[in-house]
Amino acid sequence: MGTEGYISEKEPKDGKVIAELRGVSKSFGDILAAVDLNLRIREGEFLSFLGPSGCGKTTALRMLAGFETPTTGEVLIDGEVVNDCDAHHRPVNMVFQHYALFPHLTVAQNVGYGLKQQRPRIAKNIIATKVHEVLTLVRLDGFQDRRIWEMSGGQQQRVALARAIINQPKMLLLDEPMAALDRKLRKEMQIELQNIQRTLGITFVLVTHDQEEALSMSDRICIMRDGRIVQIGSPRELYDRPQSRYVAGFVGTSNFFNGKISKSSGDLTCVTLENGMVVKGQPVGKFATGQGVCISVRPEQVSLSRNTDSKDSLSVEVKNRIFLGEHTEYLVEHNTLGEFLVLAPRQSELNDGTFNAGETVQASWDAGTALVLDRD
Predict the structure, then answer these.
(1) Burial letters 103-120, b for 16+ CB under 10 A, else e
(2) How far is 318 from 358, CA to CA, in rounded Å?
(3) What is the DSSP letter of 71?
(4) Strands of 303-305's sheet, edge to edge?
(5) Which residues pair with 348 in a beta bridge?
(6) What residue ranges in the chain does DSSP mark as E strands?
(7) What are residue 81's DSSP bridge partners?
(8) Region for residue 223 given its phi and psi (left: phi exceeds 0; alpha: psi -120 to 50; beta: otherwise)
(9) Fold for domain 253-374?
(10) Which CATH architecture has domain 17-245?
(11) Along the 376 residues of the chain, how does pLDDT read in single tens digits?
(12) How far is C-alpha 121 from the chain's CA centre?
């Protein structure tokens, strides 16, 4: 199923459509890498393609960049079809995963390389001024004479970013540019990228398999699977209202319990689980009685208690406890539902104490927080 005609309710309503994919597919022999992609990208937004390896996200990015030509469909930039336009003639630049910097050149020479290739030639003093400005923007002022091999991984990434934005492209395409950075540096660079994007107002399109990266940086996210866009929305929309088990499982962590629709009860739907229990949840989509579905409950929506008075709670055994600083993650097991996760905030543990492995406790959640989803 493609996404033709689908528009996220969170799609930016204002601003110019700077790029568009219209029914775009790409095949490599018998392999379909992208299938019927339909997407509008607006000026000044930060959009991410998110999905596992092999889902088609990099292929989509490379078709925007001009490194791949669609098998069918059209790629438009500024309203013009660019299928046959070479990459170096498109008003876009790309930051690659491995940066592709010239090790024999200085930082300044790397950053100014694109300007030196322009015709008519740009004066050396103008290039030097622009290089200084962009190095200041990425917080590398004073590093212009360094060699690339003298720079750390994070500094090299900033050099690659500076080289990409010095030509003031209409779109900046980023192909997993932070994959090689450690966790702390990656988080710092996420903030850095957001600040630069807001300062310049350039449209950023990011490819990543890191859900935290996409959620923290993007205005909108395209979730991809098997070459298709399965859902488009804001980070909050995708987290709170996933359209399927696949999206709920890929954007964040969720517990899933399989069952069948038994009846509707007001705004909630009753689901009979495989163990015979009946639970309620908010339906995402339309389902028929008897249809196979799953209940999705986020770990942070589950509460643990030693109170045995609640008739809606489940008696579970604590199997494992992992302290994560702000939260504690518990793996608990129900005798018929099996194992599932609970994420307890630090404050609740300060009030109620911690739960130990082997202890029997009560797990519960509000029916309104559970979602009834297609099983995929």
Answers:
(1) eeebbbbbbbbbbeeeee
(2) 5
(3) S
(4) 303-305, 360-364, 314-323, 327-334, 338-345
(5) none
(6) 17-28, 31-42, 46-50, 72-77, 80-81, 92-95, 171-175, 203-208, 220-225, 228-233, 255-265, 268-273, 278-283, 292-297, 303-305, 314-323, 327-334, 338-345, 360-364, 371-374
(7) 76
(8) beta
(9) OB fold (Dihydrolipoamide Acetyltransferase, E2P) (2.40.50)
(10) 3-Layer(aba) Sandwich (3.40)
(11) 333 333 343 445 567 899 999 999 999 999 999 999 999 999 999 999 999 999 999 999 999 999 999 999 999 999 999 999 999 899 999 988 777 888 899 999 999 998 888 888 899 999 999 999 999 998 899 999 999 988 888 888 889 899 999 988 999 999 988 877 788 888 888 888 888 898 889 999 999 988 989 999 999 999 999 999 999 999 999 999 999 999 999 898 999 999 999 987 778 999 999 999 999 999 998 899 999 999 999 999 999 988 866 667 899 999 999 988 889 999 999 999 999 999 998 877 767 778 999 999 999 999 889 999 998 7
(12) 40
Query: What number of other Cβ atoms are within 10 A of residue 7's Cβ?
Result: 12
Mode of pairing for the β-strands spanning 292-297 and 255-265 = antiparallel
Q: What secondary structure does DSSP assign to 244-285, as a single string?
A: BHHHHHHSS--EEEEEEEEEEETTEEEEEETTS-EEEEEESS
Distance CA 107, CA 144 (A): 5
Per-residue buried b or exposed e for 169-204, using 16+ beta carbons within 10 Å of the residue's own CB: bbbbbbbbbbeebeeebbeebbebbeebbeebebbb
Tokens 């590093």 label which residue? Answer: 143
Q: Are 191 and 45 in contact (CB under 8 A)?
A: no
The residues, any chain, with a CB within 8 Å of residue 337's CB and separated by 6 or more, are 257, 273, 275, 277, 314
Nearest Cα to 349, choosing from 321, 375, 371? 321
pTM for the full model? 0.87
Give the amino acid at 192. Answer: E
Going by C-alpha positions, the residue among 85, 82, 50 that lies closest to residue 233 is 50
| Secondary structure class of 69 (helix, strand, coil) | coil
Taking the mean position of all CA atoms in its chain, how far away is CA 34?
18
CB distance 313 to 342 below 8 Å: no
Domain ranges of the chain: 17-245, 253-374
Topology agreement, domain 17-245 and domain 253-374: no
